[in-house]
Write a structure and sequence with these properties.
Length: 472
């Protein structure tokens, strides 16, 4: 094996997983709110494998929608085993020059890039036609066993249902992950036969076929035994989630993050948290979220694809695709919708919703307020019940609020509108025009009193309820 070789990956993702009782392809079920297939593709890309093809089957349309054209796909109309799945990808395998192909399962989320890289190094160094990734586990039931010669050479992978009683005692198992010399693999694919208890085409039979041709077959035993783990039902999926959750929380503990307790805490694998930050119960951190140092997050926060600066406190906050700077205090019961930016030192109080807006430094949005499509300067104060009226039924418009402005209680700002720096709006005003800097705007209807009006209304209501009681 000389020269520059192409690294490919073929991911087997056609299974239904009937015991999962879902309409989704099994590989789209989530571990820590991240689809299992994405765990696998991320590991491949992190290991430098960028030519990826996904074998689809059950729920093919949903899988295509999920992938969004990012990876090549092939269809396995009938599920007749792993070998059969690989047969559907002949064209993908044959494309390009000299290559090696990583074949792996789309529902094995704990295969890591380190294992991929190290097994490939062994594959190349030993000039193998196939290199099987194996693991030593305490309970090998259900896994294909690794059969070796007295000298330790790989002889065969024997599926669990085809093993003898003695072979079932072997604890080195097949992870379901293989590196193949692509041309060697193509040379034996058509020789696969369904001569087994399941009547399926086993990819593992390629090992024996390649050995029979005098080619080299090897095994790389990974240091991460969790690479073999998958899930066949909801209980198994929960077990994967629990394991991944503990591993990731442990990683953050090692990095100096404090957890008062871990009840309800779910942290996606990409999330970054600075040291000295405290995570309270019920916190869910998703996607590419980055939390700074010495923050307090929780209780009961959902933070997704959001950056948070240092020394920030979030209490009962839901934030999506937003940015929160340092020394900010938000909550409780606050939602930051996509496109929101909360600048340094700002304070956002209870029952506030912010959407696609910039909240300036040291600005206070105390409570019961909606700020949408708004550019707010620094040192602005919002009274209770303020609403930026950004939508006219067809289009959305922005509101501009200058530095040091004061927005009085129950003010409605009808966008597009501009409030100048240092300007005040009187409580209860509905502002629809530009307010100059340092001005006070009062925009209310004149108070009118109609004597006896309420008495007439009350009499009508009393008569109505009296009639209802008589009828009952």
């Amino acid at each position: 094996m000389t020269g520059e070789r192409i690294k490919k990956a073929l991911i087997l993702a056609g299974g239904q997983g009937k015991r999962m009782k879902t309409d989704l392809p099994k590989v789209l079920l989530c571990v820590l709110e991240k689809p299992m297939l994405t765990w696998v593709t991320d590991a491949c890309e992190a290991a430098g494998v960028v030519e990826i093809c996904v074998v689809k089957g059950f729920g093919a349309d949903k899988l295509e929608t999920f992938l969004g054209g990012k990876f090549r796909t092939v269809m396995q109309a009938e599920r007749l085993g792993t070998g059969h799945a690989v047969m559907q990808a002949r064209e993908f395998l044959a494309d390009g020059g000299e290559s090696d192909t990583l074949i792996l399962c789309g529902d094995a989320p704990f295969l890591d890039s380190d294992t991929i890289e190290k097994s490939y190094a062994v594959h190349i160094e030993n000039r193998n036609a196939v290199t099987v990734v194996t693991a030593e586990i305490a309970n090998p039931a259900g896994y294909g066993r690794i059969l070796r010669s007295e000298d330790g050479d790989l002889l065969e992978i024997r599926e669990d249902k085809d093993c003898t009683a003695a072979q079932k005692q072997i604890c080195e198992v097949n992870s379901g992950c293989y590196w193949f010399n692509t041309q060697a693999l193509l040379g034996v694919l058509d020789a696969l036969k369904p001569a087994n208890a399941q009547g399926e085409y086993y990819l593992t039979d390629c090992v024996g076929l390649l050995l029979a041709q005098g080619k080299r077959a090897g095994a790389y035993q990974t240091e991460n035994p969790d690479v073999v783990l998958g899930a066949n039902d909801r209980r198994g999926l929960l077990a994967l989630n629990n394991l991944a959750r503990e591993v990731i929380i442990g990683r953050h503990l090692d990095n100096g993050v404090e957890f008062v307790c871990t009840s309800g805490v779910v942290i996606s694998p990409e999330v970054q948290i600075g040291r000295g930050t405290k995570i309270l119960s019920g916190v869910v951190l998703r996607g590419n979220t980055q939390i700074g140092e010495n923050c307090v997050i929780g209780p009961n926060c959902v933070i997704e694809n959001t950056t948070v600066g240092d020394f920030t406190v979030l209490n009962n906050v839901q934030a999506y695709d937003s940015a929160v700077e340092s020394h900010v205090k938000i909550g409780p019961f606050v939602q930051l919708r996509p496109g929101s930016v909360v600048k340094k030192g700002a304070k956002i109080g209870d029952f506030v919703e912010i959407k696609n807006s910039i909240i300036g430094e040291r600005t206070a949005v105390a409570h019961l307020t909606y700020v949408g499509d708004c550019d707010v300067g620094k040192n602005v104060n919002f009274g209770c019940g303020v609403v930026t009226v950004n939508y006219d039924g067809e289009n959305k418009f922005r509101t501009q609020i200058g530095d040091n402005a004061f927005i009085g209680c129950n003010t409605n700002l009808i966008a597009p509108v501009e409030i100048g720096s240092g300007a005040y709006t009187a409580a209860g005003s509905t502002v629809s025009g530009k307010v100059p800097a340092n001005a006070l705007v009062i925009e209310r209807g004149r108070q009118t009193i109609k004597e006896g009006y309420a008495e007439k209304k009350l009499k009508a209501r009393t008569e109505k309820f009296a009639k209802l009681e008589e009828e009952q």
